[in-house]
Amino acid sequence: MNRTRLSLIFRRLRTLLSATIAAVVLLRVAACGGSVQVGSDHSTATGDAAGTTGGGGVPGSLGANCILGGIVVERQGATGEAQVKTLDRCNEGLSCNSAKICVSMQSCGSTVGGDCVVYSASGAGGSSGTDGGGGTGGTAIGGNTNAMAAVPEPAITGLAADDANLYWITYGTRDNLGNHKNDGAFWSFSFKDGTTTAIASDFHGPVALGVTSTHAYVAIDGAPLIGSLTHPELLRVALSGGTPELVKDNAGIGGPIGAGFGGPFIGVGSQAAWTDQAVTYVMSASATAPSVLLAQGGWYLATDGLNLYYDECPCWGVDIKTAKISRITLSGGTPEPLLSPAYMFGVHGDSLYGVEGIDNETGIVLDRAPVTGGNWQRVRALGAGGPAWRSAVRGRISPRK
Prior knowledge:
The protein is mainly β. It has one domain (13-297). 0% of the residues lie in helices and 39% in strands. It is built from no helices and 30 strands. The chain has strands at residues 29-31, 34-39, 70-74, 82-86, 94-96, 102-104, 106-107, 116-119, 137-138, 152-153, 156-161, 165-170, 184-190, 196-203, 206-211, 215-220, 233-238, 245-249, 262-268, 271-276, 279-283, 291-294, 299-303, 307-311, 325-329, 336-339, 344-348, 351-358, 363-370, 377-384. The strands form nine sheets. Strands 1-2-8-7 form a four-stranded mixed β-sheet, with no helix packed on it. The protein has a four-stranded antiparallel β-sheet with strand order 11-12-13-14, with no helix packed on it.
Protein backbone atom coordinates (compact mmCIF):
# COMPACT_ATOMS: atom_id res chain seq x y z
CA MET A 1 0.00 0.00 0.00
CA ASN A 2 1.66 3.10 -1.18
CA ARG A 3 -0.62 5.13 1.11
CA THR A 4 1.02 3.79 4.22
CA ARG A 5 3.72 5.90 5.79
CA LEU A 6 6.27 3.33 6.88
CA SER A 7 9.72 4.38 7.92
CA LEU A 8 11.50 1.72 5.85
CA ILE A 9 11.22 0.65 2.23
CA PHE A 10 12.04 -2.90 2.97
CA ARG A 11 11.44 -5.59 5.49
CA ARG A 12 13.60 -8.60 6.00
CA LEU A 13 12.03 -10.83 3.41
CA ARG A 14 12.24 -13.98 5.47
CA THR A 15 9.80 -12.53 8.01
CA LEU A 16 7.12 -11.13 5.68
CA LEU A 17 3.60 -12.52 5.39
CA SER A 18 3.71 -16.31 5.10
CA ALA A 19 1.96 -17.98 2.22
CA THR A 20 0.38 -20.37 4.75
CA ILE A 21 -2.29 -18.60 6.79
CA ALA A 22 -2.94 -20.94 9.69
CA ALA A 23 -2.67 -21.60 13.42
CA VAL A 24 -1.84 -18.69 15.68
CA VAL A 25 -0.40 -15.63 13.96
CA LEU A 26 -0.95 -14.40 10.43
CA LEU A 27 0.28 -10.84 10.43
CA ARG A 28 1.92 -8.40 12.81
CA VAL A 29 1.87 -4.69 12.12
CA ALA A 30 2.92 -1.72 14.21
CA ALA A 31 -0.07 0.17 15.55
CA CYS A 32 -0.64 2.57 18.44
CA GLY A 33 2.74 1.91 19.96
CA GLY A 34 2.18 -1.83 19.95
CA SER A 35 1.24 -4.53 17.49
CA VAL A 36 -1.73 -6.37 16.09
CA GLN A 37 -1.78 -10.10 15.48
CA VAL A 38 -4.30 -12.47 14.03
CA GLY A 39 -4.73 -15.91 15.53
CA SER A 40 -6.81 -18.55 17.21
CA ASP A 41 -4.94 -19.25 20.46
CA HIS A 42 -7.33 -18.00 23.16
CA SER A 43 -4.95 -17.81 26.10
CA THR A 44 -6.06 -15.72 29.06
CA ALA A 45 -2.90 -14.23 30.55
CA THR A 46 -2.20 -10.79 29.09
CA GLY A 47 0.11 -7.83 29.34
CA ASP A 48 2.77 -6.96 31.89
CA ALA A 49 0.60 -8.27 34.72
CA ALA A 50 0.77 -11.82 33.39
CA GLY A 51 3.71 -14.18 33.72
CA THR A 52 6.10 -11.79 35.46
CA THR A 53 8.39 -14.56 36.61
CA GLY A 54 10.38 -16.52 34.11
CA GLY A 55 13.49 -18.57 33.58
CA GLY A 56 11.74 -21.90 33.11
CA GLY A 57 10.73 -23.36 29.79
CA VAL A 58 12.06 -22.76 26.32
CA PRO A 59 12.93 -19.09 25.67
CA GLY A 60 10.18 -17.50 23.63
CA SER A 61 7.41 -19.75 24.97
CA LEU A 62 4.57 -18.68 27.26
CA GLY A 63 5.84 -17.76 30.74
CA ALA A 64 9.49 -18.18 29.74
CA ASN A 65 12.18 -15.58 29.12
CA CYS A 66 11.98 -13.57 25.95
CA ILE A 67 14.44 -14.26 23.14
CA LEU A 68 16.67 -11.23 23.54
CA GLY A 69 17.60 -9.15 20.54
CA GLY A 70 20.94 -7.69 19.59
CA ILE A 71 23.27 -6.78 16.75
CA VAL A 72 24.65 -9.53 14.56
CA VAL A 73 26.88 -9.38 11.48
CA GLU A 74 25.65 -11.48 8.59
CA ARG A 75 27.72 -12.58 5.58
CA GLN A 76 30.87 -11.17 7.15
CA GLY A 77 33.56 -10.56 4.56
CA ALA A 78 31.24 -11.33 1.64
CA THR A 79 29.04 -9.28 -0.66
CA GLY A 80 25.92 -8.37 1.23
CA GLU A 81 27.61 -8.09 4.65
CA ALA A 82 25.35 -6.17 7.00
CA GLN A 83 24.78 -5.45 10.66
CA VAL A 84 21.30 -6.74 11.47
CA LYS A 85 19.41 -5.67 14.57
CA THR A 86 17.00 -8.20 16.03
CA LEU A 87 14.38 -7.20 18.61
CA ASP A 88 13.37 -8.84 21.87
CA ARG A 89 10.74 -11.32 20.83
CA CYS A 90 8.60 -14.34 21.65
CA ASN A 91 6.92 -17.10 19.73
CA GLU A 92 4.01 -16.15 17.52
CA GLY A 93 0.91 -15.13 19.47
CA LEU A 94 2.95 -13.91 22.46
CA SER A 95 4.43 -10.57 23.48
CA CYS A 96 7.60 -9.68 25.39
CA ASN A 97 6.60 -7.60 28.44
CA SER A 98 8.70 -5.10 30.40
CA ALA A 99 10.06 -7.89 32.62
CA LYS A 100 11.33 -9.70 29.49
CA ILE A 101 8.82 -12.51 29.99
CA CYS A 102 6.69 -13.93 27.17
CA VAL A 103 2.98 -13.35 27.82
CA SER A 104 -0.23 -13.80 25.86
CA MET A 105 -1.84 -10.79 24.26
CA GLN A 106 -5.25 -9.41 25.00
CA SER A 107 -7.99 -9.45 22.38
CA CYS A 108 -8.00 -6.52 19.97
CA GLY A 109 -11.74 -6.23 20.51
CA SER A 110 -11.22 -5.11 24.11
CA THR A 111 -8.08 -2.98 24.03
CA VAL A 112 -6.97 0.48 23.01
CA GLY A 113 -3.37 0.55 21.78
CA GLY A 114 -0.67 -1.81 22.99
CA ASP A 115 -0.17 -5.37 21.79
CA CYS A 116 -3.30 -7.34 20.92
CA VAL A 117 -4.52 -10.37 18.98
CA VAL A 118 -7.41 -10.61 16.53
CA TYR A 119 -8.93 -14.00 17.36
CA SER A 120 -10.96 -16.08 14.96
CA ALA A 121 -14.34 -17.24 16.18
CA SER A 122 -14.53 -20.64 17.88
CA GLY A 123 -14.84 -23.29 15.21
CA ALA A 124 -14.27 -20.80 12.39
CA GLY A 125 -13.52 -22.43 9.09
CA GLY A 126 -13.83 -25.86 10.65
CA SER A 127 -14.00 -29.01 8.63
CA SER A 128 -17.12 -31.00 9.43
CA GLY A 129 -17.47 -31.57 13.17
CA THR A 130 -19.75 -30.75 16.05
CA ASP A 131 -17.87 -27.83 17.52
CA GLY A 132 -15.16 -26.96 14.99
CA GLY A 133 -12.48 -26.24 17.52
CA GLY A 134 -10.70 -23.78 15.27
CA GLY A 135 -10.44 -26.20 12.39
CA THR A 136 -10.03 -25.48 8.71
CA GLY A 137 -12.40 -24.46 5.96
CA GLY A 138 -12.73 -25.85 2.48
CA THR A 139 -11.52 -24.22 -0.73
CA ALA A 140 -8.95 -23.88 -3.43
CA ILE A 141 -8.07 -20.23 -4.07
CA GLY A 142 -10.21 -19.09 -6.98
CA GLY A 143 -9.29 -17.37 -10.18
CA ASN A 144 -8.58 -20.04 -12.81
CA THR A 145 -10.98 -21.03 -15.55
CA ASN A 146 -11.00 -24.69 -14.53
CA ALA A 147 -12.92 -25.52 -11.37
CA MET A 148 -10.80 -27.11 -8.65
CA ALA A 149 -11.52 -29.59 -5.91
CA ALA A 150 -12.12 -27.84 -2.58
CA VAL A 151 -9.49 -28.51 0.09
CA PRO A 152 -9.26 -27.48 3.77
CA GLU A 153 -8.64 -23.78 4.39
CA PRO A 154 -7.59 -21.89 7.53
CA ALA A 155 -10.18 -19.94 9.50
CA ILE A 156 -8.71 -16.54 8.54
CA THR A 157 -7.96 -16.46 4.84
CA GLY A 158 -6.97 -12.92 3.93
CA LEU A 159 -5.48 -9.74 5.39
CA ALA A 160 -5.12 -6.13 4.30
CA ALA A 161 -4.53 -2.77 5.99
CA ASP A 162 -4.62 0.97 5.45
CA ASP A 163 -3.53 3.86 7.67
CA ALA A 164 -6.54 3.48 9.96
CA ASN A 165 -7.55 -0.17 10.04
CA LEU A 166 -6.52 -3.80 9.80
CA TYR A 167 -8.94 -5.83 7.66
CA TRP A 168 -9.40 -9.58 7.42
CA ILE A 169 -11.79 -12.23 6.15
CA THR A 170 -12.95 -15.42 7.83
CA TYR A 171 -13.86 -18.44 5.74
CA GLY A 172 -16.88 -19.40 7.81
CA THR A 173 -18.04 -22.64 9.43
CA ARG A 174 -19.50 -25.99 8.48
CA ASP A 175 -22.25 -28.10 10.03
CA ASN A 176 -22.00 -31.74 11.13
CA LEU A 177 -22.45 -32.92 7.55
CA GLY A 178 -19.76 -30.66 6.17
CA ASN A 179 -22.11 -28.12 4.58
CA HIS A 180 -20.85 -24.55 4.71
CA LYS A 181 -23.12 -22.23 6.69
CA ASN A 182 -22.48 -19.32 4.29
CA ASP A 183 -21.23 -17.29 7.24
CA GLY A 184 -17.92 -16.03 5.87
CA ALA A 185 -17.31 -12.45 6.95
CA PHE A 186 -15.25 -9.30 6.39
CA TRP A 187 -13.88 -7.60 9.54
CA SER A 188 -11.98 -4.49 10.56
CA PHE A 189 -9.93 -3.47 13.57
CA SER A 190 -9.40 0.24 14.25
CA PHE A 191 -5.83 1.20 15.15
CA LYS A 192 -7.16 4.36 16.83
CA ASP A 193 -9.75 3.04 19.28
CA GLY A 194 -9.30 -0.75 19.19
CA THR A 195 -12.81 -1.40 17.89
CA THR A 196 -13.47 -4.64 16.00
CA THR A 197 -16.33 -4.47 13.48
CA ALA A 198 -18.02 -7.04 11.25
CA ILE A 199 -18.45 -4.98 8.07
CA ALA A 200 -20.11 -7.62 5.90
CA SER A 201 -21.19 -11.22 6.29
CA ASP A 202 -22.92 -14.13 4.55
CA PHE A 203 -20.00 -14.75 2.18
CA HIS A 204 -19.82 -18.20 0.59
CA GLY A 205 -16.22 -19.07 1.38
CA PRO A 206 -14.02 -15.94 1.15
CA VAL A 207 -10.42 -16.84 0.31
CA ALA A 208 -8.56 -13.63 -0.65
CA LEU A 209 -8.80 -9.91 0.14
CA GLY A 210 -7.67 -6.57 -1.27
CA VAL A 211 -8.73 -3.05 -0.28
CA THR A 212 -8.91 0.42 -1.80
CA SER A 213 -9.84 3.63 -0.01
CA THR A 214 -13.53 2.87 -0.62
CA HIS A 215 -14.03 -0.87 -1.13
CA ALA A 216 -12.90 -4.32 -0.14
CA TYR A 217 -12.46 -6.81 -2.97
CA VAL A 218 -13.18 -10.35 -1.76
CA ALA A 219 -12.53 -13.54 -3.73
CA ILE A 220 -14.81 -16.44 -2.81
CA ASP A 221 -14.82 -20.09 -3.86
CA GLY A 222 -18.53 -20.87 -3.39
CA ALA A 223 -17.85 -23.00 -0.28
CA PRO A 224 -18.65 -26.41 -1.75
CA LEU A 225 -18.26 -29.69 0.09
CA ILE A 226 -14.64 -30.72 0.61
CA GLY A 227 -13.55 -32.48 -2.57
CA SER A 228 -16.26 -30.89 -4.73
CA LEU A 229 -15.52 -28.37 -7.48
CA THR A 230 -15.24 -24.72 -6.49
CA HIS A 231 -17.00 -21.80 -8.19
CA PRO A 232 -14.69 -18.80 -7.83
CA GLU A 233 -16.11 -15.26 -7.93
CA LEU A 234 -14.69 -11.82 -7.20
CA LEU A 235 -16.97 -9.57 -5.14
CA ARG A 236 -16.61 -6.14 -3.63
CA VAL A 237 -18.26 -4.38 -0.71
CA ALA A 238 -18.00 -0.80 0.54
CA LEU A 239 -15.72 -0.29 3.56
CA SER A 240 -18.69 1.41 5.19
CA GLY A 241 -20.71 -1.79 4.82
CA GLY A 242 -23.59 -2.86 2.66
CA THR A 243 -24.43 -5.65 0.25
CA PRO A 244 -21.54 -7.27 -1.66
CA GLU A 245 -21.72 -6.92 -5.44
CA LEU A 246 -20.32 -9.20 -8.13
CA VAL A 247 -17.24 -7.82 -9.89
CA LYS A 248 -16.42 -10.82 -12.08
CA ASP A 249 -17.54 -14.44 -12.25
CA ASN A 250 -15.01 -17.28 -12.40
CA ALA A 251 -12.32 -14.91 -11.15
CA GLY A 252 -10.11 -14.28 -8.15
CA ILE A 253 -7.17 -12.45 -6.61
CA GLY A 254 -4.31 -13.42 -4.36
CA GLY A 255 -3.22 -16.80 -5.72
CA PRO A 256 0.35 -18.05 -6.23
CA ILE A 257 2.18 -16.25 -9.02
CA GLY A 258 2.47 -18.32 -12.16
CA ALA A 259 0.13 -21.03 -10.92
CA GLY A 260 -2.90 -19.99 -12.99
CA PHE A 261 -4.82 -18.49 -10.06
CA GLY A 262 -5.86 -14.93 -9.32
CA GLY A 263 -2.73 -12.85 -8.97
CA PRO A 264 -1.56 -9.63 -7.31
CA PHE A 265 -3.91 -6.84 -6.22
CA ILE A 266 -3.16 -3.18 -5.49
CA GLY A 267 -5.33 -0.28 -4.37
CA VAL A 268 -4.64 3.15 -5.88
CA GLY A 269 -6.83 5.53 -3.92
CA SER A 270 -10.38 4.42 -4.73
CA GLN A 271 -9.20 2.54 -7.83
CA ALA A 272 -8.33 -1.15 -7.85
CA ALA A 273 -5.87 -2.96 -10.11
CA TRP A 274 -5.32 -6.71 -10.16
CA THR A 275 -4.16 -9.57 -12.34
CA ASP A 276 -6.31 -12.64 -12.91
CA GLN A 277 -5.81 -15.40 -15.46
CA ALA A 278 -2.89 -13.47 -17.02
CA VAL A 279 -4.97 -10.31 -17.62
CA THR A 280 -4.61 -7.09 -15.59
CA TYR A 281 -7.83 -5.22 -14.77
CA VAL A 282 -8.65 -1.82 -13.29
CA MET A 283 -11.87 -0.69 -11.65
CA SER A 284 -12.86 2.66 -10.17
CA ALA A 285 -15.19 3.12 -7.23
CA SER A 286 -18.00 4.31 -9.52
CA ALA A 287 -17.55 1.67 -12.22
CA THR A 288 -20.01 -1.20 -12.52
CA ALA A 289 -17.51 -3.59 -14.13
CA PRO A 290 -13.72 -3.85 -14.45
CA SER A 291 -11.80 -2.76 -17.55
CA VAL A 292 -8.83 -4.53 -19.14
CA LEU A 293 -5.61 -2.57 -18.66
CA LEU A 294 -3.13 -5.20 -19.88
CA ALA A 295 -4.19 -8.08 -22.10
CA GLN A 296 -0.91 -9.76 -21.16
CA GLY A 297 -1.06 -9.28 -17.43
CA GLY A 298 1.49 -7.78 -15.09
CA TRP A 299 2.94 -9.20 -11.87
CA TYR A 300 4.54 -7.72 -8.74
CA LEU A 301 2.36 -4.62 -9.09
CA ALA A 302 3.42 -1.21 -7.72
CA THR A 303 2.20 2.32 -8.37
CA ASP A 304 3.13 5.97 -7.97
CA GLY A 305 -0.53 6.99 -8.19
CA LEU A 306 -0.32 7.73 -11.91
CA ASN A 307 1.39 4.69 -13.41
CA LEU A 308 1.20 0.96 -12.79
CA TYR A 309 4.63 -0.68 -12.64
CA TYR A 310 4.77 -4.41 -13.21
CA ASP A 311 6.90 -7.41 -14.04
CA GLU A 312 6.07 -8.59 -17.56
CA CYS A 313 6.02 -12.25 -16.59
CA PRO A 314 5.11 -14.38 -13.58
CA CYS A 315 8.72 -15.66 -13.80
CA TRP A 316 7.75 -19.20 -12.94
CA GLY A 317 10.62 -21.05 -14.59
CA VAL A 318 11.62 -17.93 -16.56
CA ASP A 319 15.15 -16.52 -16.36
CA ILE A 320 14.81 -13.43 -14.15
CA LYS A 321 17.71 -11.80 -16.02
CA THR A 322 15.64 -11.57 -19.21
CA ALA A 323 12.34 -10.55 -17.57
CA LYS A 324 11.58 -6.80 -17.66
CA ILE A 325 9.87 -4.28 -15.43
CA SER A 326 7.49 -2.07 -17.40
CA ARG A 327 4.93 0.61 -16.68
CA ILE A 328 1.64 1.86 -18.09
CA THR A 329 -0.56 4.77 -17.04
CA LEU A 330 -3.57 3.67 -15.03
CA SER A 331 -5.80 5.37 -17.58
CA GLY A 332 -4.42 3.06 -20.28
CA GLY A 333 -2.06 3.52 -23.20
CA THR A 334 1.08 1.83 -24.49
CA PRO A 335 3.25 -0.11 -22.03
CA GLU A 336 6.79 1.23 -21.61
CA PRO A 337 9.60 -1.28 -20.90
CA LEU A 338 11.98 0.12 -18.26
CA LEU A 339 14.72 -2.27 -17.18
CA SER A 340 15.77 -5.78 -16.30
CA PRO A 341 16.33 -8.00 -14.38
CA ALA A 342 12.81 -8.01 -12.95
CA TYR A 343 13.53 -8.18 -9.23
CA MET A 344 10.73 -7.96 -6.70
CA PHE A 345 10.38 -4.21 -6.44
CA GLY A 346 8.58 -1.12 -5.20
CA VAL A 347 8.40 2.50 -6.29
CA HIS A 348 9.02 5.65 -4.24
CA GLY A 349 9.48 9.16 -5.57
CA ASP A 350 11.61 9.06 -8.69
CA SER A 351 13.14 5.65 -7.99
CA LEU A 352 12.42 1.96 -8.25
CA TYR A 353 13.81 -0.20 -5.44
CA GLY A 354 14.45 -3.89 -6.07
CA VAL A 355 15.53 -6.77 -3.85
CA GLU A 356 18.36 -8.76 -5.41
CA GLY A 357 19.34 -12.23 -4.32
CA ILE A 358 23.06 -12.94 -4.64
CA ASP A 359 25.31 -15.99 -4.41
CA ASN A 360 22.57 -18.53 -5.11
CA GLU A 361 20.06 -16.67 -2.92
CA THR A 362 22.25 -16.79 0.18
CA GLY A 363 22.52 -13.01 0.42
CA ILE A 364 20.25 -10.00 -0.17
CA VAL A 365 21.03 -6.54 -1.55
CA LEU A 366 18.74 -3.53 -2.04
CA ASP A 367 19.02 -2.04 -5.54
CA ARG A 368 17.79 1.27 -6.96
CA ALA A 369 17.05 2.55 -10.48
CA PRO A 370 15.29 5.60 -11.98
CA VAL A 371 11.55 5.17 -12.60
CA THR A 372 12.27 6.12 -16.21
CA GLY A 373 14.45 3.03 -16.66
CA GLY A 374 18.16 2.39 -16.93
CA ASN A 375 20.30 0.12 -14.79
CA TRP A 376 20.08 -1.15 -11.24
CA GLN A 377 22.61 0.18 -8.72
CA ARG A 378 23.23 -1.60 -5.43
CA VAL A 379 22.61 0.79 -2.52
CA ARG A 380 22.47 -1.31 0.66
CA ALA A 381 23.47 -4.75 1.85
CA LEU A 382 20.72 -6.63 3.70
CA GLY A 383 22.64 -9.61 5.04
CA ALA A 384 21.97 -13.33 4.69
CA GLY A 385 18.98 -15.05 3.16
CA GLY A 386 17.11 -14.85 -0.12
CA PRO A 387 14.12 -12.87 -1.39
CA ALA A 388 10.76 -14.53 -0.76
CA TRP A 389 8.30 -14.66 -3.65
CA ARG A 390 5.58 -12.94 -1.61
CA SER A 391 7.88 -10.12 -0.54
CA ALA A 392 6.97 -6.46 -0.84
CA VAL A 393 8.93 -3.24 -0.94
CA ARG A 394 7.20 -0.36 0.82
CA GLY A 395 7.68 3.08 2.35
CA ARG A 396 10.75 5.27 2.17
CA ILE A 397 14.48 4.86 2.64
CA SER A 398 17.57 7.05 2.86
CA PRO A 399 20.39 4.80 1.62
CA ARG A 400 23.81 5.33 3.10
CA LYS A 401 26.32 6.64 0.58
